[in-house]
Prior knowledge:
- The structure holds two protein chains of two kinds.
- In chain A, 30% of the residues lie in helices and 21% in strands.
- By secondary structure, chain A is α/β, with parallel strands linked by helices.
- Chain B contains eleven helices and nine strands.
- In chain B, helix 4 (115-119) links the parallel strand 3 and strand 4.
- The longest helix of chain B has 22 residues, at 285-306.
- Chain A binds chain B through residues 204-205, 208-213, 280-281, 322, 325-330, and chain B through 13, 90-92, 110-115, 117-118, 132-136, 168, 170, 173, 196, 198-199, 201-202.
Amino acid sequence: MRYPDYDMSATIIRNGRVIDPANKRDEVADLVIIDGRIGQKSEIRGQESDGAAEIDASGLIVSPGLIDMHVHLREPGFSHKETIESGARAAAAGGFTTIVCMPNTSPPADNPATIAWIKDRAAEVASVNVLPTGAISRNLEGEELAPIGSLGQAGVVAITDDGHCIQNHELMRRAVEYASMVGLPVLDHCQDYSLVGNGVVHEGYWSTLLGLPGWPAAGEEVIVMRNILLAELCDHHIHCQHISAAGSVRLIREARTRGVKISGEVCPHHIALTDEAVENFNTNYKINPPLRSQADVEAILEGIADGTLTILASDHAPHAEFEKEVEFDAAPFGIAGLETELGLFLNLLVHKCRKVDIRRLIEMYTVEPAKLLKLDAGTLSIGALADVTLIDPNLEWTVKIENFQSVSRNSPFDGWKLRGRAVRTIVGGETVWKLNDA
Amino acid sequence: MTRWKRKDLLGLRELSADEINFILETADAFKQVGTREIKKVPALRGKTLVNFFIEPSTRTRTSFELAAVRLSADVINISAAASSLTKGETLKDTARNLEALHADILVLRHSSAGAPQFLAPRLKASVINAGDGAHEHPTQALLDLYTIRERRGRIDNLHVAIIGDILFSRVARSNIFGLTKLGARVTLVGPSTLVPREFEKLGVTVSHKIDNVLPDADVVNLLRIQHERQRKEYFPGTSEYTNLFGLTKERAKMLKPECLIMHPGPINRGVEIDSEVADGLQSVILDQVTNGLAVRMAVLYLCGGIAG
């Protein structure tokens, strides 16, 4: 989507609170965009604002474009759930200028041709930057390595079998060693299959009460531990996705103090909800890893506060209504999260718990993923690509799934009243979304 | 019928003690019908009941079918093999098709916990839970309560031991909810793998030593023990189970003379209970079957009267 009135060579975003953690900047100022990059006022010909478009950002936060490094775009293969185009629109509506998509498509992104297809498709239809990941193992089967070097050449930013977890520790070790040579970080969905079995909800009070198969916290923790040992052995970075359990936070904290190249990620649902939510068997609460106990929620909040957990992401997992309208056991796991995550994190981390301030929240959405994935993004430095998110931190709004840009509607947050959201998303100097566009 | 307002019976957890007692009282009237020469009443004449069994069952399905016939309802039986679910149709679509054929009551047996909770709000028809995964089996627990009340005259302050595979048992969960609501004291007995301590949060006691529990029990309810593929990791085998937890002839001597011995069936003679004990004077296993009919008539009558 293009807006001709902003498609000019220069734009000035006036009077916003510019927060740019990469440059330790937090001040009310004007931000200048020239030819799609962050510029300086002096570069604008003649008088100030001569010929430049203006955006009034009074009362708003001017942030580097947010990065969500854990998104399922479902294309190729499952376009009834989401397409690259619709997923990118959902990202823009959520305030994201860059999204990292997972390889569990059909065919899976375990080969350079599929990566090339995703990149071509994204260049054609996506309103935000779409960065693909490649599979660790062929066909995501955990049996033999995917061509990781060729995937790197094709432009993946990381490798992961997300949705699956390599159970064979020897294969995982070699994958991490090989990825180290190629210079790609490894992202892992931490789940021990033998401990988890057919588990669908957190093993605890509610699984006991409801007779639903339990997914014990140890099923995550044992793989987090495995990853810490392998990151140490291979001296290479492993990022543990969507941390849900207190024990995982404790393990990562201890390993990071020793300098192990390990990191952890938080999704909003794991701190917004507990396993009690599954009481009525509503499949919108069926998530992998599952919603856990209040003690787990508190441990994750502490992990965010003390810097143990450094990345915020959605694990955006869109599914069609007919796929979720089934028995709990039979439903697919996941939440469509791109359009609610910023509002949820603002409420849960900044407004309500005050675990971090808005500067740190923005840092966790920009500098941290950019550093981990070695991206040229996440900053408002002079000369950087003008990916900018304007955030109204106090705007009160209500989540309405019928207004989602995503093809899917599987969110447990419908009707939630939130404070704070993105109001305009700018990619390469062009506004790709603004509030009330819908 | 001001004491009954539900179109569905999904589980005992959501029922009040008063609602449970009302079902039991209603069952009293239907139990008498079974002793008459003409065992049929016209309560559900013109109504259609579908026995919708996605998981194999003979005794529960037969009991519901007979209960419906005695209430003069028309009955259709659909089993997993015959249903469209094997052709990829969703549970919701299959159920709505049945409703489009004017089914009034759907009796659902399903391997997934929560399947009846999923269907009930999506259908105008009554949904009766005939067992969902490891979640609930409300009519089984109601017939157990009925049998205890009939033989012991009350339920409150009785000590009921439920022995066996509790973790995977819907019968155990419904019994726990029903018994505790009506004031009984419940002890769960079995191997630590099948009776995790987490159950104590449901207001019951957990024990792994059957000999400590039997002398104090007013009722022992034995659950069927299976050592199938999916249970292999939970306990070493049936002979070890019998050794540690079986109600053998020797152990039965520890019971109070008035203690009732119950079992939802089918019995594994020689595994969870010795054959002589199952057939002994304290056994009320066949009373349970008879009472199941009366209880299911009551449930169909009450819910069927609300639906449509």
